[in-house]
Amino acid sequence: MGVLFISHSSQDNDHAVRVRDWLKSQGWGEVFLDLDPAQGLAPGQRWQEELKRAGENCAAVVVLVSPNWVASVWCRTEFLVADQLGKRIFPVFVAPTSFDELPLELRAKFQLADISTPEKEAEGFQRLAIGLKRAGLDPKSFDWPPPSDPNRSVYRGLQALDVQDAAIFFGRDAAVTRGLDELRRLRDGAPQRILVILGASGAGKSSFLRAGLIARLRRDDENFLVLPIVRPERAAIGGAQGLAASVSKALGRPVSLSGGAADLAQAFADLRKPVVERLTRNAEAARETYTAKPPTIILPLDQAEELFGAQNTERAAFCDIAAKAIAQDGNALIVATIRSDSYEPLQTEPLLAGAPQLLFNLPPLAAGSFQSVIEGPARLAKPPLTVEPALTQQLLADLDAADALPLLAFTLERLQTQFGADGNLTLADYRDKLGGLAGAIQSAVDAVLGAQPSKEKLALARRLFVPALVQVDQDGVKRRVARRQDIPSEAQALANSFIEQRLLVTDDGTVEVAHEAILRQWPALVAWITEERGALVVLDSVRAAAREWQAHAERRVGKRGESWLAHRGDRLKEAEKIAARADFASAVDQPIRDYLAACRKEERRAAGTRRRLQALAAVSALAVIGVGAAWMNWDRIQPELVRLTRYAPHANRAEALADLSPGDTFQDCAAASKHCPVMVVLPAGEFMMGDPPQSPEDTQQRRINVARFAVSQFEVAFDDWAGCVAGGGCAALPSPGDAGWGRDNRPVINVSWDDAKEYVDWLSRMTGEDYRLLTEAEWEYAARAVTSIDRPSTLWGFGDDETQLGEYAWFSENSEQQAHPVGEKRPNAFGLYDMHGNVWEWVEDCYAPYDPEQRDSSAVEGDGQEQDGGATASRSENATTCSLRVLRGGSWGGSPQDLRSAIRFWNVPSSRHGNVGFRVARTVSPPNP
Q: Does 687 fall in a domain?
């Protein structure tokens, strides 16, 4: 319910005690009064400071109005602070007071209760009680068990707690109150229209939305009307939990949204109408006029990352309808939950640009709250359930940061179902029978596969989960909602067994992993995903490309639509190879097959066009300059013309560069060219590559020697890329392009490793010089800006002081969640800008564990695995087995630790993302003696 805070003048202490005692006698047990010796303010504390420290638990403020209160500047300040914080405010006259003397904000917005005289006291208290209850602050706690499910378990395992589970939702009281405050601020006129609940996987976002916020909002139907929860899954509008189903359920009749935003806005009005009519009748019965703001519609969107998944074909339509309907209605909000690492697509979605977002951070559950999560539900169990104190202490000792909440929930559920028949959960059951936290998920797996499963059974389990129930994209490993028909027929019975053990869940013909913690905590599944990571990333990129291609079908009428066919050349061959795998067949649906077929058709058409142009060029050349030039063709003529007319190659370039000193800059084309990178000469040197031992992620350090080379002073910008496009060396970037942030001197984003390679190849042709991507060792050498092994390794190129990071880098705390123009921060000691943050940078290397024997700065050319997954081979033998390429430097969305000099990330070479770009390197001659 939350704390009720009594604000009063010190001259009205007697009235304050009387109101406190009445509230407690009516069931409101948590009342904060500064006079209270147990719950009030300690000497020297001030109300505003206390509210700031502990006010997240303050659900409402009861303001005791009197002439003393009106005369007190401090009391009026208390009221204004509470109003600005979005608190529910209930003014009560405790002494006759002129209405005209009250602050305008109080007169205009709040209904007052009056207990200022004995004759008015009973009615005034009754009015206060009704107001508190209508605001969802009923002293009655949530019922348990729910009347509709009398046998419901108090431990829900990996399932999200739902609205009916509010009574057993423990540990988040402060966050719930803060969330309700934010929603009231949005209702009262704050500009944002979407409240985004942002948290890591396993933080409990869905439970917080359902059992925390929505359960309480539904008690306050004078102010909020909450639609049934929308979950995008595979179809955000037409799916079983899509927008149309939500609106239809709310209205109690089928609703079509074929008319778009107008239909949804009308549905909002239809939902609100009976509530407004009821409130109007109530006001008339009390001889009053209903003048309050009508209820705010809440559209809850759970697991919003699914909206942007490659398999969801209704993203654009959903965003367009929802944003426009909210704008048309003017009194509606979206409350969305999304994983922190998946927020960028929601943040940058252009169709939602008209609906400003407010971020609500939901951090991992505080360590001090886990005890209430363990013991609180047990106190409500029927029949009673006792948790042995020693078990609680052992659970608390065993918990760590990784998946703590979902693992605890799953462990408690299995303890209750397997060993709680006698009403006791004991340490012996947990430690000796279940095998502790680590054994909880494994015990459920063993119940399905057996303690020592056969190779055949493990192979079948692998086919069940990979690829149908798993996806890997730029944000990491996620569960995937699969249709029943996506599951191999031979694995259907096994899927049912996993469902019985609550490791999988099913609903309306779909199947999915119960929680992403399973993808991280079941060792065998982790190994399978790791082995297939490259293929899964490729599959997800093909899904995304196929979705975009289909979404722009109307643009292909009368056209070839080749701009939306992103897979060509080696990328297409790789995708076709994976699509042809028998074990991936169930995950390759007809849209993917149609898309790949279109890509192959376009590849053949483009090849034919090139052959015709070459023939035409040859004929033209013969007609103009004779047989001697017949072997020239357009593919050679166009770059050469651009090279000669725009880039003006230098004569004796190598000799000129040999005279340059470390830190000197140069360009390989006409001075001040917009399309030729400024290069910085770096000296030869030696450094320790990898994390220092005290860092959070201790990679294996090794001593690396680096030859003299040059690096672009800035990340490659959109202006640079435009030169490549104009010169015929690069393709125009597909959607989403610049993410709406602008181009010009911002780093080019949404470029794949393949795109970056096209750029450096073109730049080499244009200048006649050896341009390339940096190797991973070269990149870290450039970022650290040290040339001697005697210099100690630091976390960032400037040192270990995190407070300085903002001087050198754009990152999560200062970037406003977007890329910024290059060169706006301080350069490092080598004169290089943005080595930390702004955008991740592709490097040449294939991703593989560090080779402790490597001593030079050459690139790793293979992943160390043979094509058939056999024995480890040398790098040179595996030049064609690279499925993942390395990214370095962190981005605008990263934390300080994500920007360390030694940080490594990786992705499939065809991946494009709004926080990924690159810079270039160039081989230079040794210095003159």
A: yes
693 preceded by cis ω (within 30°)? no
Numbers of helices and strands, H then E, in the chain: 31, 28
pLDDT tens string 856-875: 999 998 765 443 333 333 33
Q: Read off the pLDDT of residues 348-374 as tens digits, 9 standing for 90 and up.
A: 888 998 899 999 999 888 888 889 999
Residue 597 lies in a domain: no
Question: Sheet holding 665-666: strands in order across?
Answer: 665-666, 679-682, 709-712, 920-923, 771-773
Rounded Cα–Cα distance for residues 221 and 224 (Å): 5
Q: Read off the DSSP letter of residue 447.
A: H
Residues 6+ apart with CB under 8 A from 126: none
- How many residues make up the chain in this entry? 929
pLDDT band for 201, please (50, 70, 90 cuts): confident
Helix (H) or strand (E) holding 907: strand 904-907
Cα separation, 87 vs 60, in Å, equals 5
Q: How many CB atoms lie within 10 A of CB 499?
A: 15
One domain for residues 14 and 111: yes
Report the pLDDT value the prediction gives residue 57, as an integer from 0 to 100. Answer: 57
In the predicted structure, residue 51 carries a pLDDT above the cut 70: no
Boundary (domain end) residue, out of 575, 591, 607: 591
Q: Which of 857, 798, 877 is nearest to 833 (CA)?
A: 798
Structure tokens of 332? 């509606």
How does DSSP classify residue 433?
A: I
Say which amino acid occupies 731. Answer: A
Let me know whether 506 and 524 are in one domain: yes
Based on its alpha-carbon atoms, the radius of gyration of the chain, rounded to whole angstroms, reads 32
Whether residues 665 and 763 share a domain: the answer is yes
Q: Does the model's pTM come out above 0.90?
A: no
> What does the H/E/C string look like for 547-575?
HHHHHCHHHHCCCCCHHHCCCCHHHHHHH
The closest of 123, 121, 11, 13 to 67, measured between CA atoms, is 11
Instruction: Summarize pLDDT for 826-864 with one digit per residue, the tens.
Output: 999 999 999 999 999 999 999 888 888 889 999 998 765
Distance CA 668, CA 678 (A): 8
Which helix or strand (DSSP H or E) is residue 395 part of?
helix 389-398
Tell me the backbone φ, ψ of residue 226, rounded to 5 degrees: -105, 125
Question: Does residue 627 have a pLDDT over 80?
Answer: no
